[in-house]
Structure formats: structure tokens, C-alpha cells
Amino acid sequence: QAEAALDRARGANAAGDPPGTPDAIALGAELARAIDENELVLFYQPKVHARRQEIDSAEALIRWQHPVRGLIPPGDFIPVAEAGDLIDRLTLWTIERAIADQLALRAMGHDLRIFVNISGRLLGDTLFAARVCDIVGATDAKLGFEVTETSVIRDPASAIANLQRFADIGVCIAIDDYGAGLSSLAYLKQLPARELKIDKLFITQLTSSNRDPLIVRSTIDLAHALDMEVVAEGVETHAALALLTVMGCDMVQGFLISRPVPRDALVAFLREDGNRRASMETRLSFSR
Ligand code: C2E
Ligand code: MG
Ligand code: MG
Ligand code: MG
């Protein structure tokens, strides 16, 4: 089986796909085994309300806990999975893991929505969408999918139909990396998306750039006009957080609030968040 994966990775390489370095080919061969042997792990990064600073939801970000190479970031193996035909299995694994974690968090009293990143390669695939609907339709876990606009442009009719199916069974759709890829206002209008995530490209230098604040502000206004909530990703400084709050950005995510962390660390973060809120409420009731 590892040999077959290796061949597929080589084939992808011959076709001119980028993940063709010897290292990427070796990873592709191992990835199939890694999925079976549970070497993949989901880390979680909270999204918080900009004004209230309360946790709204969390994004699942995959890592590969490799026995020899250590923790491998998704940028190193997701393209390999896409080229080697493993992306559907990997994504189904991710959705199932996210459902289990959402239900576990709910049982601990933290019923927050968990967002999963869905590869653009899969968005137009109607058979894949049907499998996803079977899995998601069988649970009441609160889920969201993050998709990029570029992935919709690949095959707009099927992508939009599939996203609508997901939205119909209660999945919250978020548009990821907005502004960084191929953007089309025509598709933006048609997508059943409730959240727009502004790419960190425009956020990390927000307070030192002349143009980024203008772009960000008009994007926030556009999203609100389309009835979507806005999330800024890549919030690293208090100055950026303050400016985004003034601009009316609904939610923020970034290293300032929390890095992506294992599930147990997210639980600790949620407890602190709850305690902080409870003590604020106590203070408020004393001052009344
Ligand atoms: P993304 O979905 O846009 O995720 C945001 C990336 O920015 C994450 O990198 C996150 O760790 C990083 N980030 C978060 N806050 C900050 C910040 O304040 N500053 C900076 N400089 N970076 C920040 P990560 O985890 O390496 O993921 C990279 C990409 O890999 C993701 O981009 C997503 O497209 C993809 N990915 C991750 N997990 C999955 C998955 O389960 N399935 C699929 N198909 N793709 C995934
Ligand atoms: Mg919400
Ligand atoms: Mg994302
Ligand atoms: Mg993003």
C-alpha cells in the first residue's frame, strides 16, 4: 500500500505538481500509514469576540506527530495528500475527530462550534459531499467548515451546491483567507457563508501599513452588507486588536489570543475564560 502511494506521488510529480521533492514523495508514502496508525492530531485555535473577548468557537488545525521527524505542520503534508489522492481519507478522519472532540467538549460544559478546514480539491466532489453529509447528519455536534474562495472558482456550480447541502444540515460555512487568493464578488454573493475570515496578510502589519487598514475596513463593511460576521486571522498585537475593534470586526483569532494548542490546553483556556467571565459578573453585581 505504501508502494502504491509512492507511485501516485511520483505520478503527481511527473504531472508537474509542486509536491515532488524526494522528501515529499517519502512523506506521501508514509501518510497512508500515519492515518491508520493515528499519528495525525488536531490542534485547536480559539476565535474570540473582539469586544467581549469571549471564546466563540475554535478552528481545528491538523498536525502530524511523526515518530522520527517530530511535529510536521500541515503546509508540509496537505499538498502531498492532495497530490497523492489521500486528501479525502484525511479530511473524513479530520471531520470524525472534530465531531468526537466537539461532543467531548460539550460534555465538559463547553459547547462551542468546531471549524474544520476543507481542501478545495474536494469541494466540487459530489460523492465526497454525500459521504460528509452521512457523517455529519448522524450527529448533532456543532460544526463549521472553512473553505477558500479559490476552491469555489475551480468548479463553482458543484461547489456552491455542496456548500448549500452542508449549510442545510447545520454546518456553519466560513470563507477562509479572504483577499489572498482569487476573489470574485459574484461568488461571494452566492455562497451560503455566515463568516468571512480576512487573510492574515492584511492583519499582521495592520497598524504599520497605510493601505491595509483601508482594505480591512472596506472588507468588514462589505461582509456586514452581505449579512456575514467578520473574523480577522493573524492578530498578533494589542494595537491590531484595538484597531479591528474600532472598525467593527466581529471576531479575532491569532497568536495574541492563543496559538493552536492540543485539545486539553483548549479546555484549560476555556475554563480560564469561564472563570474570568464569572468573576467579572460578580464584580458587576457587587457594584450594582
Ligand atoms: P488557515 O486555515 O488559514 O490557518 C491559519 C494558519 O495561520 C495556521 O497555520 C495558524 O497556525 C496560523 N496562525 C494563527 N494565528 C496566527 C498569527 O497570529 N500569526 C501568524 N503568523 N500565523 C497565525 P497552520 O496550522 O500551519 O495551517 C496552515 C494551513 O494548513 C491552514 O491555513 C489550512 O489551509 C491548512 N490546514 C490546516 N489544517 C488542515 C486540515 O485539517 N485540513 C486541510 N485540508 N487543511 C488544513
Ligand atoms: Mg457565531
Ligand atoms: Mg482556516
Ligand atoms: Mg486562513
Characterization of this structure:
The chain has 288 residues and is of the alpha/beta class. Helices cover 51% and strands 19% of the residues. It contains 12 helices and 9 strands. Strand 6, helix 9 and strand 7 form a beta-alpha-beta unit. The longest helix is centred in the C-terminal third of the chain and has 25 residues. It is globular. The structure holds ligand C2E and magnesium ion (3 copies). One magnesium ion binds next to loops.
Distance between the termini: 68 Å
Shape: globular
Bound molecules: ligand C2E, magnesium ion
Strand proportion, as a percent range, falls in 15-25%
- Main β-sheet, spatial strand arrangement: 1-2-4-5-6-7-8-9
Note poorly predicted spans: 1-17
Counted by DSSP, the helix tally is: 12
Structural class: alpha/beta
**What's the count of strands?**
9
Radius of gyration, in Å, reads: 20 Å
Mean pLDDT: 89
Domain EAL: 24-274
Protein name: EAL domain-containing protein
Summarize this structure briefly.
The chain is an alpha/beta fold. The protein has helices at residues 2-14, 22-36, 74-83, 87-107, 120-123, 126-137, 149-154, 156-168, 185-190, 212-225, 238-246, 263-287; strands at 40-49, 55-66, 70-72, 113-117, 143-148, 172-178, 195-198, 229-233, 251-253. It has an eight-stranded mixed barrel with strand order 1-2-4-5-6-7-8-9, surrounded by four helices.
